[in-house]
Amino acid sequence: MTEIGDLSATVAIVTGAARGQGAEFARVMCERGASVLLTDLREDEGEASAAALGDRAAFVPHDVADPRAWTTVVAAAEERFGRLTALVNNAGINRPATLPETDDENWSLHLAINQSGPFYGMRAAAPAIERAGGGAIVNICSGSALHGSHRFFAYSATKWALRGMSRAAAVELAPRGIRVNAILPGLVETPMVSEVGFQADAATLAKIPLGRLATPADVARAVAFLVSSESAYLTGAELVVDGGMFA
User: Fold this and answer.
1) What is the H or E stretch that residue 79 is in?
2) 136: closest CA among 2, 11, 8, 31?
3) What does the DSSP 8-state code read for residue 241?
4) Among 44, 104, 136, 193, which is most exposed with the fewest C-beta within 10 angstroms?
5) Is the pLDDT at 224 greater than 50, yes or no?
6) Phi-psi bin for 126: left (phi > 0), alpha (psi -120 to 50), beta?
7) Contact 12/227 with Cβ under 8 angstroms?
């Protein structure tokens, strides 16, 4: 009998894994026995993050907005680890702008990375996961997909879309033995959150019932749960990891 939290049978791709949440997702999964292929455009940081995790991790440079690159990445996971059982679509961007400020470039960039990236990933990974006997896909959405967010017009639009994509994929892929769930983090202590101006000041913390920002480990434990057999009857679900911010 496997122990609770054991991921020794899991082989996962984690996108946006050079730093922040993605790197922590990979670390927690490897710590629990998984093999993980980290991908990112930040090659130096990605190589370092994978090297720190030992033989159960590897890194591949990857532009999630390029559908051809996904074919290469899935093949790399199967070649290195023998199979693929999980995909964590974590890569994303947020370039804050109001609706009137959102130009064509800003809009297209958000769609390419935050929406098309997960689509290409699910499309490419599903046959490999099915070949492995089934598994799980986890899409990292956002608390901004629960309400309107000032200056996050394009970001919110793509994260709302990813919620819908996750549910549709859950219904379509279930007969193939693939579960699809979404995680909606609140404010997490990552470079991306600080880059868009959120700080752990008194005004911000007053909006969070648990009184603190999430750590990447808080979200990583949710990811580990959703790729594990402990969540075998969960698909099409949305796990909000926000300290009660949107309760």
Assistant:
1) helix 67-81
2) 11
3) E
4) 104
5) yes
6) alpha
7) yes
What sign does the dihedral 46-140-36-225 (CA atoms) show? positive
Query: What's the pLDDT tens digit per position in 41-86?
Result: 999 999 999 999 999 999 999 999 999 999 999 999 999 999 999 9
> Please, what is the Cα angle at 70 between 187 and 43, to 5 degrees?
65
Point out the residues that are catalytic: 155
CA distances from 194 to 26, 190, 197, 233 (A): 21, 7, 5, 36
* 226 vs 206: CA distance, rounded Å: 29
pLDDT score for 193: 67
Q: How far apart are CA 26 and CA 219, in angstroms?
A: 12
Q: Give the rounded distance of the alpha carbon of 232 from its chain centre.
A: 19
Calpha distance 53→35 (Å, rounded): 10
205: closest CA among 219, 223, 190, 189? 189
Residue in the structure block whose two tokens are 């970001």: 155
State both tokens at 203. 């005004």
Which residue is listed with tokens 């005004």? 203
Confidence (pLDDT) at 235 = 98
- Judged on CB neighbours under 10 Å (0-12, 13-18, 19+), 47 is middle
- Full-model pTM: 0.95
Helices (H), 83-215: 104-110, 117-131, 153-173, 191-195, 202-205
Exposure on the CB side of residue 58, measured as CA atoms within 13 A: 14
Confidence (pLDDT) at 22: 98
Which CATH entry fits the domain spanning 11-240: 3.40.190.10, 3.50.50.60, 3.40.50.720, 3.30.470.20?
3.40.50.720
3-class DSSP state of 201: coil
